[in-house]
Amino acid sequence: MINIIGLGYIGLPTALMIAKYGVKVVGTDYNIELITTLNEGKVTFEEKGLKELFQEAIANGIEFTTEYQKTHTYIIAVPTPYLKESKKLDSKYVVSAVNSILDICEKGAAIIIESTISPGTIDKYVRLVIEERGFVIGEDVHLLHAPERIIPGNMIFELENNSRTIGADNPEIAEKIKGLYSHFCKAEIVITDIRSAEMSKVVENTYRDINIAFANELAKICRTDKMNVYEIIRIANKHPRVDILQPGPGVGGHCISVDPWFLVGDYPDLTNLILTARKINDSMPRHVLGRIRDIMRKHDIKDISKVGIYGLTYKENVDDTRESPTLQLLERMDEHLAFGVKIFDPFVKKRIVDHQFMNFEDFLNEIEILVIMVGHDHIKYNMNLIKGKIILDTKNICTFDDAYKL
Ligand code: SAJ
């Protein structure tokens, strides 16, 4: 039996996927509400294919509980928040999960950490906790790091089709755990040491952050001289060795906007490029604010309550609002502009900001300027409804000739 600890954005789909392939799985989370919801047969967040996968896993006997289970294999997928001040990772949830596992696990159990951690976390914190408890790593328990790589919006497909990394001290144990992941992962599974597994995960997200920062810097350059950044990137990407990502209103989510800080925090003298990329991406909500001001001036609109922001999530077709560019924009707006801007997001069903509308048409009726911050399919399919508005399209999804761009 596999006990999965933490049933959030990564733990839940992983637990369901392993159960789908016939392995006995128990999912554990300290959040009673979440466990109750799952036990009532409901999934806890929106993700393509998740409901169907949930039904398959239920049919195969997956269980959800707040209790840790006595077994030989644990997967930890708990949150790893980062401390905004120090830019360092807070490993308290990982450490606490390891401690709870030690209270109950069978001798020789494998503890696999999937949560993203900053390079060195296992050496600095996790090993220490285990040794302090009198356990011998490699005999009493085995430690592994198998960082997840799935992208919200396409998680289920990527769980089965992305290559994975397994970092371990002991190649034999790594092979065993590779066998577990091979139940559902059809792509290559690379075995390495724990430190390389930690580092490669953070490097992947940092690479993407830098690539997006380059696109965002190009957007700013092109804006000053009225060039079309999308056309330029489209053409440049025809080159066989060029692959520039898309500019946007900022980089949000709990991964790309966070992980590069681990490197900056640990190697402050060696991370000029990484830090600059972070700063460029963090500057984008302010750039959008500047564009809103330009457009208001041009159309002689002085009342901010005539501006409507479409999208509160950190990207399209997900319901996750963590570090979202819109929330960053609103934070910056408070400094400069009066309250009153209107907000709508079809994926956010709870009211989390002022002046948030629950109905798209009511929202549109109140505004003159529409700022598209997220390219949900919902708005792509409702272009007819936004015709006639003054549009600032930060995601380049709107086809009207008169839409303003980034
Ligand atoms: N974004 C752009 N331009 C782009 C692509 C993305 O501005 O061309 C923005 C998005 O709008 C969003 C942010 O970047 O605000 C991050 O979105 P994303 O889709 O790039 O990535 P995440 O954060 O959803 O997922 C990433 C993925 N990492 C990589 O692609 C290297 C995913 O594979 C990881 O599993 C995930 O981080 C994670 O959990 O670490």
UniProtKB/TrEMBL annotation:
Gene Ontology biological process terms, A to Z: polysaccharide biosynthetic process
MF GO annotations: NAD binding; oxidoreductase activity, acting on the CH-CH group of donors, NAD or NADP as acceptor; oxidoreductase activity, acting on the CH-OH group of donors, NAD or NADP as acceptor
Alphabetical list of Gene3D superfamilies matching this protein: Cytochrome c1, transmembrane anchor, C-terminal (1.20.5.100), NAD(P)-binding Rossmann-like Domain (3.40.50.720)
Domain of life the protein comes from: Bacteria
Signal peptide from the UniProt entry: none
Keyword Transport applies: no
UDP-glucose/GDP-mannose dehydrogenase C-terminal domain sequence ranges: 308-400
Alphabetical keyword list: NAD, Oxidoreductase
Pfam families: UDPG_MGDP_dh, UDPG_MGDP_dh_C, UDPG_MGDP_dh_N
Family: Belongs to the UDP-glucose/GDP-mannose dehydrogenase family.
Record-linked PANTHER family: UDP-N-ACETYL-D-MANNOSAMINE DEHYDROGENASE
Record protein name field: UDP-N-acetyl-D-mannosaminuronic acid dehydrogenase
